[in-house]
Amino acid sequence: MSIFLKLFFVFLKTGLFTIGGGLAMLPIIQYEMNRHGWLTHQQFLDILGVSQMAPGPLAVNTPAFIGYCIAAAEYPGAYWRAVLGALCCIVGVCIPSVLCVSVLGGYWARNREQPGFQRVFGILRPVVAGLVIAAAASLVISCLWDDTAQPFLATVSTLPDLKALIIATLAFAATAFLKFSPILILISGLAAGTLLALL
Fold it and tell me: Half-sphere exposure of residue 102, counting CA atoms within 13 Å on the CB side?
């Protein structure tokens, strides 16, 4: 099977079994990248950072960048194939949502107040919350501790990266307590990261 079909089916499966949007799909995507050996943990985090900075939803940006990078690594210099890899991932992750909205959207709009639907979504909400929390915790740990190959307790028992801890704390405080614009925080983070890389 070609790399393009593999990418398509991986993201088709991701789109089919993800409920809760872009953050909820991150653990599934990360698992698939590790299982196929396509991206290292650090490469995945770098792509995630670029995806969050780029315009558009995370659920589309992340597959696009992943598909581009994997196809570009598979076919060096053939940029049209890298673009094709990005398109395969985008189409794969979007097809389940488009089909669900097209086929079931009207039925859902007419019956969303039914007790059966309410019970199903009452069960799904904690599942989605757990996936989002898992994704957030993985990002925090990967950001503050470089060595993610160790077990969880061994990793967090060591001291975190002080610069990363300060930046993360300032970004959290500016968002949660000072109500700064997320765009301003992202631009500030980009500037701080660039400055620290040059020092």
Answer: 6
Tens digits of per-residue pLDDT, 28-63? 898 899 889 999 878 888 898 888 888 888 889 999
The C-alpha atoms of residue 115 and residue 9 are separated, in whole angstroms, by 34
pLDDT, tens only, 117-133: 788 888 888 888 887 78
Q: Output the CA angle 66-67-70, nearest 5 degrees.
A: 80
* pLDDT tens-digit series, residues 136-156: 787 788 778 765 555 555 556
Which residue, 163, 193, 158, 195, is CA-closest to 50? 193
SS3 at position 68: helix
- C-alpha span between 183 and 86 (Å, rounded): 25
State whether the Cα torsion 178-180-186-190 is positive or negative. negative
Report which of 62, 59, 67 is spatially closest to residue 46, judged by C-alpha positions. 62
The domains of the chain are located at 3-112, 161-198
Which residue, chain included where needed, has tokens 């660039």?
A: 194
CA angle 99, 104, 108 (to 5 degrees): 145
What is the rounded CA–CA span in Å between residue 180 and residue 119?
Answer: 37
Distance, CA of 154 to chain centre? 25
